[in-house]
Amino acid sequence: MEKKKLFLCEEACGILIRAFIYPTTDWEYPNEQGLGCNALNANDTKNFLAFLKLLRKKLGTSHRLSAAVSMKGFMSPDGQNYLSDVSEFAKVLNFFTIMAYDVYGSSFSKLAGPNSPLYSTCSEPTKKYSVAQTIKQWTSTGIPSRQLLLGIPSYGYAYTLLSSKITPSHLSGQPGVTSLLFQPHANTVPESGKTAGQAGGTDACGNPNVAGGQWLFKELSETGKLSNNQQKGLNGYRRIYDNCTHTAGVTINNTLVGSNNKKR
Asked: Ranges for the GH18 domain (predicted)?
């Protein structure tokens, strides 16, 4: 790293140490788009590691240091493939908090799918991301399982399905292995919870904000769609549980909302 940049990093490290006992970092994502207008550099991951090493040096061993990371791993300099060995990160970080959510969402996915699937057996071939997959990904690239934390969502996405009848999808390629999810849906996002992002204005990239379509799990109970223990649909809503992805949802007419994954 250049001396000027190194100086700035040292200043930033000092601020972090003074402000937080257990600092965490969140870069979405090194050499990979997150918001949509990130300035990418082939050395992003390398520089991120250099910054973390400097931060660890400033912190010493008494402070815990963690990073929020994607389900896929750290991107290589080519911008196409994920690194097969990221063990150097395990030497400076205490924990890796995997953001195991937003695999599917009403405003950015072609099919109505699970927000945070446990397994991806029934997913689209291009969306084979799941809790099981990401744990395997990180441990296979040199991160001990004891250093992995799982970030799970407290919300689900709402979809306007093209049909009020749910026909089991068959994307697994295995005989008899189907899912209640991965349904075609309209571009119209149905009613959302109070905490969901609303349409209007622009994001940091200058793109129009669209309705988020999220419902907090507790809001589904508070608004009479699910029982308090979230195991039974109310007021015309039906609770479903998908045994392939191990995720749940509630449906009414042609609306599907992801809910708490706890099985009956």
From this structure: 1-264
CB 55 within 8 Å of CB 65: yes
Q: Which of 28, 32, 88, 222 is catalytic?
A: 28
> Is-catalytic flag, 222?
no
Please give the domain boundaries of the chain with CATH numbers for all domains.
3-151 (3.20.20.80)
User: pLDDT by residue (tens digit) across 32-47?
Assistant: 998 889 899 999 999 9
CB contact at 8 A, 127 and 195: no
Structure tokens at 260: 């708490």
Q: For the segment 101-141, what is each residue's pLDDT rounded down to a tens digit?
A: 999 998 889 999 999 999 999 999 988 999 999 999 999 99
What does pTM read for this prediction? 0.88
Residue 154 has a pLDDT of 94
Rounded-to-integer distance, Cα 142 and Cα 87, Å: 4
- Nearest 5°: the CA angle 39, 94, 129 is 55
Strand extents, DSSP E, 70-221: 95-99, 111-112, 148-151, 155-160, 183-184, 214-216
